[in-house]
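FW: tagging you since you asked about this chain on Friday. Here's the raw sequence from the shared folder, copied in full. Didn't touch anything.
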Amino acid sequence: MEGINLNKNIVFKKGSLRYFNPGEHHCRRLSRDNVLLLVFDGVLRFSEDGVPYEIKAGEYYIQKEGLYQEGNIVSDTPCYFYAHIDCEWGGEDILEKRGSFDIEKFMPLLNRLDRLAHDKAPYILKAEILYGIINRLSVREDTGSVATEIEKYIQREYSKEITLEELCDKFNFSKNHRINLFKAKYGVTPFAYLNYIRIKEAERLLVITGKSIEEIMRECGFNNYSHFFRLFREKNKVSPLKWRQLNQV
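HL: got it, structure written out here
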C-alpha cells in the first residue's frame, strides 16, 4: 500500500483550480514535485513512467516526484484542484496514493485554498486548509465498510482477547488510520466500543443468570476484576452486585 507519510511534515508549495479545454491533454514533464490532484468533474488521463492512469470525478491521486508524466490520451474536460507539496512517502500512517472523496463536502475547502493561493495569503492559512483536506482524505467515506467489518468482528468476538495488532493485521490498516476511520463512523475508538459491548453483555448476564460476578467478567472477555469493576461503575454508577440486586426480579 503506497502513500504519503502522515507523521511527517507536508508542505504546501502552490496550488489552484484547473479547468481543461475540450481535447486538451495532460502536459509532458518530469515531475519535480509531489502533486495532489482532486478531480471534481470530467476525467483526467495521464501516464507516469509509462503506466496509464484515469482519474474520474470524485477521485483523488498523488503524483510522485521524479516520474515522467505524459498525456498520451486526451482527457475528458476535467475540472480539478492541484496542490504541489513536499512530503515523505511510506510509513506506518499514510494517506493512500489514490482514493475517493465527497465532492460536495470538499469543494468549500478547495475553493478557499484556491482563493488564498491567488491572494498570496500567509503560508499558515494555506497550510491549515491543506491539512484539513489531507485529514479528511485520510478518513474517507469509502472506508466506512471497513469500519463496519471491524464493528461486526467485535460484536462476534468480544469474549476473546482482541489486540490492536490483531485488528491491524486482520483489516490491513495502520493503527492510527484504523482507529480514525472507526471513530469517524461510530464516534469512539474500537477498544472503547469493545468495552461497551462487554459491559452490556455483563449487564444482561447479571440479570438473567446466577453466575458469579467473576465468571461473568471472564465470559465477557475481561481478565482483570479492577478494570471490569471500574468500567462497569463508570457506565452504570453502581457496582455489578448492586446492578444485579436492582434489576433482578
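FW: Residues 209 and 216 are 9 Å apart (CA to CA).
HL: agreed, and The two ends are 55 Å apart (CA to CA).
FW: great, closing this out.
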